[in-house]
Amino acid sequence: MAKLYFRHGTVGSAKTLNLLAVAHNYRQQGKKVLLMKPDLDTRFGKKQIKSRAGLEMQADVLIVNESSLRGLDYTGVSCILVDEVQFLSAKVIEELRRIALEHDIPILCYGLRTDFKSHLFEGSARLLELADSIEEVKATCHFCNRKSIMNLKHVNGKAVKEGPSVELGAEEKYFPTCYKCYCREIDKAALTKLQSACCSH
Question: From first to last of its 201 residues, what are the pLDDT tens digits of the chain?
Fold first, then answer.
């Protein structure tokens, strides 16, 4: 039986580069691959799947969380690759699980595990529950040499923990960090905010 894979990592861990390399390998062997991504991810263009290294391909399917993937034609498809899977709903993840089972097609999902507030994304949470294989794509902390496990959001050079969980951006907005550096930057920002409030009175 084909498996459902979840390959997760922090921002900057080359998840999309990994996805594009897998797609290239399949296509080089003359095999049909379906590339999917959430419709809401428009950072590099509506249909573009692009890595920070500059490699890019066009998505075959744009996923809208309210729509169904079950009715698509999967004839001859050897592999399905899904980018930015954290933005998908639990319902879509459940559909991907069934598609892998019913069509015997391996489905490789790439995305973040948690948001910048350290909470699981809906799609990632359901994948952790349903995936046959869960693999971490490792990266190094922006501030030190430890492994990154957190996604730190920063605005005007300061760490923030407020705002919507889904807010598109790349390295201009998010840093990969270890837990120690994440806490240090958040605490530093909170202290600066407190000092500013005190000075204004």
Answer: 799 999 999 998 999 999 999 999 999 999 999 999 999 887 777 898 988 777 889 999 999 988 889 889 999 999 999 999 999 999 999 999 999 999 999 999 999 999 999 999 999 999 999 999 999 999 999 999 999 999 999 887 788 877 766 665 556 688 999 999 999 999 887 665 544 544 454
Residue at token pair 């089972």: 101
Provide the terminal-to-terminal Cα distance of the chain, rounded to the nearest Å.
66
Are the C-beta atoms of 69 and 99 separated by less than 8 Å?
Answer: yes
Distance CA 134, CA 145 (A): 24
How many Å is the Cα radius of gyration of the chain? 18
The amino acid occupying position 94 is E
Q: Residue 45 has which token pair?
A: 């263009």
- Annotated catalytic residue, options 56, 84, 102, 185: 84
Take residue 43 and report the two structure tokens written for it: 């950072």
What's at 187, amino acid-wise?
D
What is d(CA 126, CA 83) in angstroms, rounded to the nearest whole number? 15
In the block, residue with structure tokens 């605490």: 187
Adjacent-strand bridge partners of 159? 154
84 is catalytic: yes
Q: What is the DSSP letter of 147?
A: B
> Cβ neighbours of residue 119 under 8 Å, at least 6 residues apart?
165
